[in-house]
Specification:
This protein is 39% helix and 13% strand. By secondary structure, it is an alpha/beta fold.
Length: 124
Amino acid sequence: GYAALFLTALDARSRFLVFSNPHSTFARLYADPVAASLGPWSAGICGWADAARIQLIAPRPFIWENGSRDANGYEAVDIECVDAIIRFYDRLGLSDRFQFLRHERGHETRPELTVGALRAFFPD
């Protein structure tokens, strides 16, 4: 998940991003003692949208897939990071280039969800 995120942000040769991971922010993560125990990887899970890394990915297509029962997603308001990305793509006039695909499971990748979304971006 986060390796793909950072690679896409830093390497302009990447044509799109498919991201499968939970979402959170630094403020929310450290407001919860259980969530704060995730500190060793908090640089990946938190604050990336509000740290403007999304600006390095846009305008490329971005698919974010995540389970609604992912116990690693610590947010005060569900999908607040996703909403920030939607607003950013909307401001660029590229709302069709970001898709958030939610499944009803936990911390797992559901590739069958992303295949259709990728075909919409790249029909050939």
